[in-house]
Write a structure and sequence with these properties.
Blueprint: H1 3-25, H2 36-42, E1 45-51, E2 56-60, E3 63-77, E4 83-89, E5 104-112, E6 117-119, E7 127-128, H3 133-139, E8 151-155, H4 164-183
Parallel strand pairs: 4-8
Antiparallel strand pairs: 1-3, 1-5, 2-3, 3-4, 5-6, 5-7
Helix pairs in contact: 1-4
Length: 188
């Protein structure tokens, strides 16, 4: 290998390792403040409910999650029935939400079509009833949960792969390295 090729390869390895390290240590949840109009359109389920049990901690597809049970009081969109199970991320940077047992909330949950489940994150308008009077007023009176569906399932499902971005950079580094070998062949 020529000196230039070795330097290029070393630079690609350092860049890939640095980006991979940064992706693991710099996790954060960033949200654009939602409006009620956007949330009405985005959410598959909008309901008021009381957390009826302490959260259960588990791992789903390698991600730490908390599962909460809600007794539904009323709904505005997507009748989930009388009881809903909601699971949210328990990982730093996972945008998960924590609920207090016995707490009453207005929940904006989004369908996760690939898994047939539901998700809610800190980026939605979900909030305690005590702090949601203007949201409740704007939503109207709502409807009592129907008997057409016994229970609903609202589940956090990861929407990104932590290694996705760094792996693509590794691929670019390898492609660059391979091209640099062709551009600067080893001379006999």
């Amino acid at each position: 290998m020529t000196k230039l090729t070795r330097v290029s390869f070393l630079a690609a390895v350092v860049l890939g390792t640095t980006v991979r390290w940064m992706s693991q240590t710099a996790e954060a949840c960033s949200c654009i403040p939602p409006t009620l109009e956007l949330e009405r359109a985005r959410a598959s389920f909008i309901f008021e409910g009381t957390v009826s049990a302490s959260p259960i901690e588990a791992r789903i597809d390698g991600h730490a999650v908390r599962t909460y049970k809600f007794d539904v009081i009323r709904y505005w969109k997507g009748d989930a029935g009388n009881a809903v199970t909601l699971t949210s991320s328990a990982e730093p940077g996972g945008c998960g939400r924590e609920f207090l047992t016995g707490g009453r909330y207005i929940v904006f949950a989004e369908a996760n079509a690939p898994l047939g489940e539901m998700t809610d994150t800190v980026c939605s308008l979900t909030a305690s009833v005590e702090t949601s009077s203007s949201t409740i007023h704007s939503l109207g009176s709502g409807k009592a949960p129907g008997s057409g569906r016994e229970s609903g399932s609202c589940t956090y499902a990861p929407t990104h792969s932590p290694g996705g971005i760094p792996m693509s950079l590794w691929a670019l580094a390898i492609i660059f390295w391979r091209r640099s070998i062709k551009l600067f062949p080893i001379e006999p």
